[in-house]
Write a structure and sequence with these properties.
Blueprint (H helix, E strand, L loop, with lengths): L15 E4 H20 L9 E4 L5 E4 L2 H7 L5 H16 L4 H20 L4 H22 L1 E2 L5 H12 L8 H15 L1 E2 L5 E2 L5 E7 L7 E3 L1 E4 L11 E10 L7 H7 L5 H24 L4 E4 L5 H9 L3 E3 L4 H11 L3 E2 L11 E11 L2 E9 L5 E7 L2 H24 L1 E4 L3 H17 L1 H14 L1 H9 L4 H13 L5 E4 L4 E4 L6 E3 H19 L3 E4 L20
Parallel strand pairs: 7-16, 10-11, 10-13, 11-12
Antiparallel strand pairs: 1-21, 2-3, 4-17, 5-6, 8-16, 9-15, 10-14, 14-15, 17-20, 18-19
Helix pairs in contact: 1-3, 1-4, 2-3, 3-4, 3-17, 4-14, 4-17, 5-13, 5-14, 5-17, 6-7, 6-12, 7-12, 9-10, 13-14, 13-16, 15-16
The chain binds adenosine-5'-diphosphate (ADP) and magnesium ion.
The site of magnesium ion has 4 residues, from loops.
Length: 543
């Protein structure tokens, strides 16, 4: 036998490798499994999912990114689609389901083309052209919205919340969301609006109806003063933030003191008492009447604080400390004995209030008014969680609408208009790229067709009717899930920020193109992750 016949093995035994069409189809199948998993949750008539983790904790949601984050996705191509959702969430805060469904459909249409022997690189470059054109169309059909258009902004907030359980109180929450965002709006150096959503804080409590949620212009800290005989209300609060314990370290004492007779013991106790008292008196001396401490406060120190009429909380969360710092102007101090008057922050009022049966500290009239808190209520903790997710979606869309100053209509109307204009564009390009651009155009129609399907209507009928209306020039023709008809979305006030579409189209295209260009998957034995999200091995993987 000649040497030339022996296969050369360059990969470690156990390494899995897929090449060519197998690799492509498996990757696409895995990615599509992800988009199929979230499909049924799209839109006002979308269903919720109940997710149970390995510890038995339950999340009920129809938020695309939440569903995908909770799912333990293994397959590398599937993970790329999860990334699409996460990017959408980070950049826009809404439209996560849309972006994933779009990516899945772009891949599905690509499979048809690969079957018809169109090379994946041709599809990829056609998709890129289509993406650019889609962005251009989107920009052209977008309309202006400004900070002063409160009613419009409320409608944008409502559209984001409509598919969520808060839908019945959407007017109430829409007002709340716009008020919250308008309170924290800022301008950057160039004079553009800049909105830092970290300045909106949520505090969740179950046990009340969701429309008992309310907004507070200030901060809420889920803490009460360490001692009941401390004041319940401090006006003109001078606030100290301390990241150090009001305690005498026991280790130091162990190392240094050896007690031989009782008088030494009492001297030692007196010394300890003096050290604690010095700490408290130092804080008082610089003028603080409220103390938030990230660490512990010794019993004796608590007693001194109470005696001085100082409102003191201990073990305050780091994130709360930072928020307190930002909004009251206080700096966080690490060494108690080095605190200075200039480290203190200010609030008109610090007050202990009862929420349900729990005491919380409200900090109102802060120096920097650009801080709001929303007390989120819900019948149970799970409901309160979903209310919070809906509010986060809503103020995210209001934020990006204000920042970009642009909005589009929903209900699949914008996706359909893009599809229509892409088809004209494809014809002008011709050749093989034309086929890919046409496939891209059809993929856009997955948005109206899924909305129709989830509302129990025939997706094909709806898409055909919608094409007809767009051809006739009604660029706002979209699907109304409540009537099952194609109607004018601008007239129905179904509006959303331009950035949802912009980002969803971009990241869905990126992911689809990236997956299409892979024709070789080499997985080491250790990773062994070539299976879909639901734990089913991919066909053809184990031979
Ligand atoms: P996503 O995670 O993508 O935001 P949603 O479940 O929030 O998914 O659904 C968003 C889709 O629902 C968008 O296409 C939006 O235009 C559509 N939609 C929202 N409200 C309405 C409405 N009243 N009528 C028609 N479509 C709507
Ligand atoms: Mg949404």
């Amino acid at each position: 036998m000649g040497m030339g016949n022996a296969p050369v093995i360059i990969l470690r035994e156990g390494t899995k490798r897929e090449k060519g069409k197998d690799a492509q189809f498996n990757n696409i199948a895995a990615a599509r499994a992800i988009s199929d998993a979230v499909r049924s949750s799209l839109g006002p008539r979308g269903m919720d999912k109940m997710l149970v983790d390995s510890l038995g904790d339950v999340v009920i949601t129809n938020d695309g990114v939440t569903i995908l984050k909770e799912m333990d996705v293994q397959h590398p191509a599937a993970k790329m689609l999860v990334e699409v959702a996460k990017t959408q969430d980070a950049e826009v805060g809404d439209g996560t389901t849309t972006s994933v469904i779009l990516a899945g459909e772009l891949l599905k249409k690509a499979t048809d083309l690969i079957d018809a022997n169109v090379h994946p690189t041709i599809i990829a470059s056609g998709y890129r052209l289509a993406n650019d054109k889609a962005q251009e169309v989107l920009k052209n059909i977008a309309k202006k919205v400004t900070l002063e258009d409160e009613d419009t902004l409320e409608l944008i907030a409502q559209t984001a919340m409509i598919s969520k359980s808060v839908n019945n109180s959407k007017e109430y929450f829409g007002k709340m969301v716009v008020e919250a965002v308008k309170t924290i709006v800022d301008k950057d150096e160039e004079g553009n609006y800049a909105i830092d959503l970290r300045n909106i804080q949520t505090v969740k409590k179950g046990g009340a109806k969701m429309d008992e949620s309310y907004i507070v212009k200030g901060l809420i800290i889920d803490k009460e003063p360490v001692q009941p005989n401390m004041p319940k209300l401090v006006e003109n609060a001078k606030i100290a933030l301390i990241d150090a314990a009001f305690e005498v370290k026991k280790t130091e004492i162990d190392a240094q003191i050896k007690i031989t007779d009782p008088s030494q013991l009492s001297a030692f106790v007196a010394e300890e008492e003096k050290m604690l008292k010095d700490m408290v008196m130092k804080v008082k001396a610089v003028g603080a009447n409220v103390v938030f401490c990230q660490k512990g406060i010794d019993d004796l120190a608590q007693h001194f604080f109470a005696k001085e009429g100082i409102y003191a909380c201990r073990r305050v969360k780091k994130s709360d400390m930072e928020r307190l710092g930002r909004s009251t102007g206080a700096s966080i101090v690490n060494k108690i004995m080095e605190i200075d008057e200039s480290d203190l922050g200010y609030a008109e009022k610090v007050e202990l209030k009862k929420v349900e049966d729990e005491d919380m500290t409200f900090i109102m009239g802060v120096k920097e008014p650009k801080t709001v808190s929303v007390l989120v209520r819900g019948g149970t903790a799970h409901v309160a969680d979903e209310v919070e997710r809906s509010l986060v979606d809503a103020w995210s869309v209001v934020k990006v609408a204000i920042e970009d100053g642009m909005m589009v209509t929903g209900g699949g109307s914008t996706a359909m208009e893009i599809a229509m204009q892409l088809r004209d564009y494809a014809a002008s390009i011709g050749g093989r790229a034309q086929i890919a651009i046409e496939a891209y155009a059809s993929a856009m129609e997955i948005i109206p067709s899924t909305l129709a399907e989830n509302a129990g209507h025939d997706p094909i009928d709806v898409v055909i009717e919608m094409r007809k209306q767009h051809k006739a020039g009604n660029i706002y023709g979209g699907f109304n899930p409540y009537t099952g008809k194609v109607e004018d979305m601008a007239a129905l006030n179904v509006i959303e920020p331009y950035r949802i579409g912009k980002q969803a189209i971009n990241s869905a295209t990126d992911a689809a193109v990236m997956i299409l260009r892979i024709d070789d998957v080499i997985a080491s034995r250790a990773s062994n992750q070539l299976q879909t999200g639901d734990g089913m091995p991919m066909p053809g993987m184990d031979d």
